[in-house]
Design brief:
heterodimer; A: 235 residues; mainly alpha; elongated; B: Rossmann fold; Alpha-Beta Plaits; 15 strands
């Protein structure tokens, strides 16, 4: 129902409004390179919206399992890939719309987009790959666990540190050394770095290529995991 | 003697007659390779829509849900799979539907091996699960159309079939209503229609009337019956309701603890209990003393020449006799002579319930009522964890 898309948008907009107020004086730190915290944080909010949104995608699968929709579908000639893909893509479409709305609001609030319209498309590509991976992993976990409680637990356990162990909220030069090492293993960070480049600095291809490749692998890994769970646990 | 002759005759036939060319090309009978009787079996199998061969499922943890069952379902018949909760009915249906893999053995459904050719099996079957798996937030039409696309039917065919099916299950006028406004019976009918959109060779109905009120149940029976007659669809249905199997099925397999313990038409099964059933109770309350009295009565009556068999249950004794009318007075007299006072006595033609009792020594649902819902909940939870 479309109304939920709007309601789901409220939280990221709150992030955008509140965080940028609380951390306003951070802009005086040397690491932010003279950008306002709003300018710096807006790409992070977009990535977070997609991450949190897609990480919960498995709850829909769980509902389908509970209501018997899934086993009914599995007895039709529809391939497992299609069933997984349809769920993942459906959540993607919603999230891309949300991300675009956040982009627009950020621009209205005064964020300057260095790369213009092509940058928006590139951003969509990066965050779609990130979200695809999360949604696929989440659906796979739903198939594996079959219950809401452990799924909710794992999603919370995974997304929180993934947000903090990245440069979402703070410039890389201001992060402690160990965190700078850890974030190298975090797909969320690659999305943030890529989108931030596009918003703040323009096309830094060394970063963008790395982000694209890593996020692509992340998406493929998620799909592979999801499909494997169909094999292992599908009724 | 006669049987031996027939047997010899067949053995000769088998040697001379290779009929494998008669099989449709698409058919891959793994049974043929393993079963020395294969070729002979194949003649019969041409008409069968489902044939299982030592089908077995052992769940992790060692539960033997289905234990090497063999049966065939003929084209166009309604085949009932009757057994108590946990007998292995749903597990069997899920194996035949390719939802789970057998631990050993195999089966052919619509001419395709469930292990080697699961995609083809899926194309030719319809599955109506125990849970009504419809999309609550869509309309009836949207639900049906979605399934039409699953089977890659073209738009025109789907439109035509949707109209036919809504008529068949008596939902005309509700096509464009959201499913969450449907009643339980309407949902089940939509669910059944969704399994029929592609005109499957066989449709699997897993406990089609569980959780519905008796009136709706009778309606659903009518639809199932019409369906078989109107479309000539083969129907494989599981149930733990005696009257449902009796009412609907052309042939019934009784399954208990993962094994088929009896198979035949409802009448054949009832006739397997020769004569009549006299059910009597010598006690007002079911206690230990009652049990003792029943055991005594059982041992006394078993010795009588007119008694074919006896079966004691909780508080009652079933006595199988040739002629019920003349047996009742005799039973009363004999028991009175033993000092046993009969409190209630009834005489009936054997029912499927008696058939089940005869083969398993139990009634099909020993504890009905509050426990059923709890057991069903437990079962649902177990199913999810698998």
């Amino acid at each position: 129902m479309p109304v939920w898309i709007v309601i789901n948008l409220v939280q990221p907009i709150l992030w955008l409004l509140l965080f940028t107020q609380v951390f306003k004086s951070l802009a005086t730190l040397p690491g932010l390179g003279g950008f306002s915290y709003l300018q710096f944080f807006a790409p992070g909010v977009m990535v977070m919206t997609v991450m949190f949104g897609s990480a919960w995608a498995g709850m829909g699968m769980l509902q389908d399992i509970d209501m018997g929709v899934l086993s009914k579908m599995l007895a039709t000639p529809v391939t497992r890939v299609s069933i997984l893909m349809s769920r993942v893509l459906a959540s993607m479409i919603v999230l891309i719309v949300q991300a675009l709305v956040i982009f627009t609001i950020a621009i209205i609030m005064g964020v300057h987009l260095e790369t213009g319209a092509p940058g928006v498309l590139f951003t969509i590509l990066l965050i779609s790959l990130l979200g695809l991976g999360f949604a696929a992993f989440s659906n796979g976990l739903a198939l594996l666990l079959r219950r809401a409680e452990p799924l909710i637990g794992i999603i919370n356990l995974a997304t929180m540190p993934m947000m903090f162990l990245s440069s979402t909220m703070m410039a890389t030069s201001l992060l402690p050394g160990w965190l700078n090492t850890v974030r190298r293993f975090n797909p969320v960070d690659y999305a943030v770095v890529g989108v931030r480049d596009l918003v703040l600095h323009g096309y830094i291809w060394s970063d963008l290529w790395r982000s694209l490749v890593v996020l692509f692998c992340w998406a493929v890994a998620g799909m592979a995991f999801g499909l494997m769970m169909f094999r292992v646990k599908a009724e | 003697m006669a049987e031996q002759n027939v047997n010899l005759c067949f053995r000769g036939l088998r040697k001379r007659l290779d009929v494998s060319f008669l099989l449709p090309r698409r058919t891959k009978w793994s049974i043929l390779n393993t079963d020395p009787l294969g070729r002979l079996g194949a003649i019969a199998n041409i008409m069968s829509v489902i044939a299982t061969h030592q089908l077995t499922k052992i769940y992790p943890g060692g539960t033997k849900a289905v234990d090497g069952i063999d049966f065939e379902v003929n084209a166009g018949e309604i085949f009932g799979f009757l057994g108590p909760n946990g007998a292995g009915k749903t597990t069997t249906i899920k194996m035949l539907n390719t939802l789970i893999q057998p631990t050993s053995g195999t089966a052919a459904v619509a001419g395709f091996d469930i292990l080697k050719n699961p995609d083809e099996v899926r194309r030719h079957i319809g599955y109506v699960a125990q849970d009504v798996g419809v999309d609550e937030y869509g309309t009836g039409r949207e639900n049906l159309e979605l399934y039409g696309h699953f089977y890659r039917l073209d738009g025109k065919t789907i439109k035509k079939r949707v109209e036919e099916l809504f008529k068949l299950v008596d939902l005309s006028g509700y096509e464009d209503k959201i499913v969450s406004t449907y009643s339980g019976g309407m949902r089940k009918r939509l669910d059944i229609a969704m399994g029929l959109i592609h005109k499957p060779d066989v449709i699997f109905l897993d406990e089609p009337t569980v959780g519905l009120d008796p009136q709706t149940r009778v309606h659903i029976w009518e639809y199932i019956h019409n369906l078989a007659k109107a479309m000539g669809t083969t129907i494989f249905l599981t149930t733990h309701y005696m009257e449902e199997a009796d009412h609907l099925a052309d042939r019934i397999a009784i399954i208990d603890l993962g094994k088929i313990i009896a198979l035949g038409t409802p009448n054949e099964l009832k006739q397997s209990i020769s004569g009549d059933v006299v059910t009597l109770s010598p006690c007002a309350v079911k206690d230990a003393e009652c049990k003792e009295v029943i055991r005594h009565a059982q041992s006394v009556l078993s010795g009588e020449s007119f008694v074919i068999g006896t079966q004691a249950t909780d508080g009652e004794l079933a006595v199988y006799v040739d002629k019920g009318e003349s047996a009742v007075p005799s039973i009363m007299r004999i028991l009175a002579g033993q000092g046993i006072e009969v409190k209630t006595i009834s005489l009936a033609r054997p029912s499927l319930e008696d058939v089940f009792l005869k083969y398993t020594g139990r009634t099909i649902r020993p504890q009905e009522g509050a426990h059923t819902t709890y057991a069903e909940m437990q079962r649902k939870r177990m199913r999810r964890q698998r």
